[in-house]
């Protein structure tokens, strides 16, 4: 993977100095050459001092959205990529940096990019979800995403946020701590992204278009990948295997990212343990496991300790799905990479000895919800003086959303292949969210929301039922583009309740613009009287994507301190397509620094 981002400090200084010179000259002040040099040097010195004082560095990067060919499983396809790579380039920044990404669309599809997990404080225009915070970048057009990384450090990722293009348009974001600030755990010998993806032999845009046209569930992927490689367990794929070469006694930090479209994944390395130290760019209390689970949208940093001696063996690093859904509605295959040890006896240190014993990890059963619960219960914020857990202790607004599947009646001009001749759908509080044809954020900012959205998303189900009991006969959902309005700085508690309509399922819900604290979770129906007493308001995990347990509920809290329109949706792309999405509208505060910034001049038009 290419390290394609570079610090632009020297060039921006030169630019600043050059611009100042131009201004000086444009004002008619004519000076001879030596004076100009002195002015130049002074301005340069001043800029360095200011940059140091502000501890701010600009990182600039150009991303080209372009078609590229790739061959996996003995089939070649043309696909949408960034810079011709999949995964795309790694973005590296430090906490406090400003990041400036120019994205140019060279393909026939509309495109947007989302910086998943970046808080985007007051810069919602740079968040990326199509028709939510921006109109898409059209063919031949560019857009500059300009944002500052504030109060976050660890691993996040970027991906396309329109239709299913994120299948091949994704890459890591690495946020290093501020200069001189160590990790709160022993520094690893090396660190590297380990990105899980899905490989589709078919064109995923055709897959989703066909699903929408028939109302049926879409096809599933053909393979999972690690850093773009499916590995040796698939036909015609052994040559496309991710290999991690390690030295005995050293520790490696794997920056795990689940970029799969539709699958939560178990991950394990044979005969090794993994120490979880961070999730979603927030440090956690370290704990050690043999296997972990990671949902689409989530990131997890783990420390992998190599054995103290050369083991004379190789080890699979494997990932396979966790799903409670019906077989056939998900990809039930296994991706493997290989962990290899450098042989100290070998002439070439990195040589790979053929014929070594190969160990495979044992992954949980594909529907092992107990494993998932045990794992997620281990996640705790550090909650130290340096890294406090700022859990809202009191609540201004309480909400209860059902989250689940459903159906829509078949339109008269269509033949539908969903359950009993309907179309598949999904909803929150029975509203299947319809994306508008104009962007929500701009409609809000300009005051022209009529006909684009309604500010009346239900705060609780309109007709309560036994959510996890026998499902109701009527599985139909309503449709609409409804936002939930929050005053600035409201402290919010949201309980999300899975339903049994068309089967219980785990839904990894992702909130844009905020981190939230996972204060409680459980199975069955949420009990508003007794469950809050069990909430963890001391050291709950802080993250941006959380699994609503299959047949259960999860409670989160967050402070609405970021004005803008913020998408919240299931990160299983198929569910998002079916409407399992909504948006919050957080109003401006009264102070100047509590207001959404104005839109950039190059904001794309619909
Ligand atoms: Cu879902």
UniProtKB/TrEMBL annotation:
Cofactor: binding comment: Binds 4 Cu cations per monomer.
CDD domains: CuRO_1_LCC_plant, CuRO_2_LCC_plant, CuRO_3_LCC_plant
Transmembrane segments annotated in the record for this chain: 38-57
Compartments in which it is found: Secreted, Extracellular space, Apoplast
BP GO annotations: lignin catabolic process
Swiss-Prot/TrEMBL keywords: Apoplast, Copper, Lignin degradation, Membrane, Metal-binding, Oxidoreductase, Repeat, Secreted, Signal, Transmembrane, Transmembrane helix
Entry EC no(s): 1.10.3.2
InterPro entries in UniProt: Cu-oxidase-like_N, Cu-oxidase_2nd, Cu-oxidase_C, Cu-oxidase_fam, Cu_oxidase_CS, Cu_oxidase_Cu_BS, Cupredoxin, CuRO_1_LCC
Catalyzed reactions: 4 hydroquinone + O2 = 4 benzosemiquinone + 2 H2O
Sequence ranges assigned to domain Plastocyanin-like in this UniProt record: 65-178, 191-343, 464-588
Role of this protein: Lignin degradation and detoxification of lignin-derived products.
Protein name: Laccase
Gene source species: Oryza brachyantha
């Amino acid at each position: 993977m290419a390290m394609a981002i570079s610090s632009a400090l020297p060039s921006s200084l030169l630019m600043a100095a050059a611009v100042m010179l131009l201004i000086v000259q444009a004002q008619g002040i004519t000076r001879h050459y030596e004076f100009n040099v002195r002015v130049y040097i002074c301005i340069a010195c001043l800029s360095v001092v200011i940059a140091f004082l502000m501890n701010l560095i600009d990182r600039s990067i150009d991303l080209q959205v372009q078609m590229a060919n790739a061959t996996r499983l003995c089939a070649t396809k043309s696909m949408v990529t960034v810079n011709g790579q999949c995964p795309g380039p790694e973005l590296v920044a430090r906490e406090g940096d400003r990041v400036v990404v120019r994205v140019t669309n060279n393909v026939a599809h509309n495109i947007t990019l989302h910086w998943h997990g970046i808080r985007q404080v007051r810069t919602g225009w740079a968040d990326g979800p199509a028709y939510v915070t921006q109109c898409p970048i059209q063919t031949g057009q560019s857009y500059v995403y300009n944002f500052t990384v504030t109060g976050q450090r660890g691993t996040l990722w970027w991906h396309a946020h329109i239709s299913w293009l994120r299948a091949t348009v994704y890459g890591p974001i690495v946020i290093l701590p501020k200069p001189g600030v160590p990790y709160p755990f022993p520094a690893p010998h090396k660190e590297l992204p380990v990105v899980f993806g899905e490989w589709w032999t078919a064109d995923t845009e055709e897959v989703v278009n066909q699903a929408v046209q028939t109302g049926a569930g879409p096809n599933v992927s053909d393979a999972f990948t690690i850093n773009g490689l499916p590995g040796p367990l698939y036909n015609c794929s052994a040559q496309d295997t991710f290999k991690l070469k390690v030295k005995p006694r050293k520790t490696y930090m794997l920056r795990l990212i689940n970029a799969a479209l539709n699958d939560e994944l178990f991950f394990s390395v044979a005969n090794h343990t993994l120490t979880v130290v961070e999730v979603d760019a927030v440090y956690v209390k370290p704990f050690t496991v043999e296997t972990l689970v990671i949902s689409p949208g989530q990131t997890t940093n783990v420390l992998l300790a190599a054995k103290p001696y050369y083991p004379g063996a190789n080890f699979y690093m494997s990932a396979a799905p966790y799903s409670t859904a019906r077989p056939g509605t998900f990809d039930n295959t296994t991706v493997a990479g290989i962990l290899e040890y450098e042989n100290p006896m070998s002439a070439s240190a990195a040589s790979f000895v053929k014929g070594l014993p190969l160990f495979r990890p044992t992954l949980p059963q594909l529907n092992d919800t107990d494993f998932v619960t045990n794992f997620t219960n281990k996640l705790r914020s550090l909650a130290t003086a340096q890294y406090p857990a700022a859990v809202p202790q009191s609540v201004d607004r309480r909400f209860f959303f059902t989250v689940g599947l459903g159906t829509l009646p078949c339109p008269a001009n269509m033949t539908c292949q969903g359950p009993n001749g309907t179309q598949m759908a999904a909803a929150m509080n029975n509203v299947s969210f319809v994306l508008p044809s104009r962007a929500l954020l701009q409609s809000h900012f300009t005051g022209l929301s009529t006909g684009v959205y309604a500010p009346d998303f239900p705060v609780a189900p309109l007709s309560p039922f036994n959510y996890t009991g026998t499902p109701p006969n009527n599985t139909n959902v309503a449709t609409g583009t409804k936002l939930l309005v929050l005053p600035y700085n409201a402290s919010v508690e949201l309980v999300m309740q899975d339903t049994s309509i068309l089967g219980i399922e785990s839904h990894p819900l992702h909130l844009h613009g905020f981190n939230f604290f996972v204060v409680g979770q459980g199975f069955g129906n949420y009990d508003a009287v007794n469950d809050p007493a069990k909430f963890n308001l001391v050291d709950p995990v802080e993250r941006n994507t959380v699994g609503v347990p299959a047949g259960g509920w999860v409670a989160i809290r967050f402070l609405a301190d970021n004005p803008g329109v913020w998408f919240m949706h299931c990160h299983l792309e198929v569910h998002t397509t079916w409407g399992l999405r909504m948006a919050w509208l957080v109003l401006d505060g009264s102070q100047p620094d509590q207001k959404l910034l104005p839109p950039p001049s190059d904001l794309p038009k619909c």
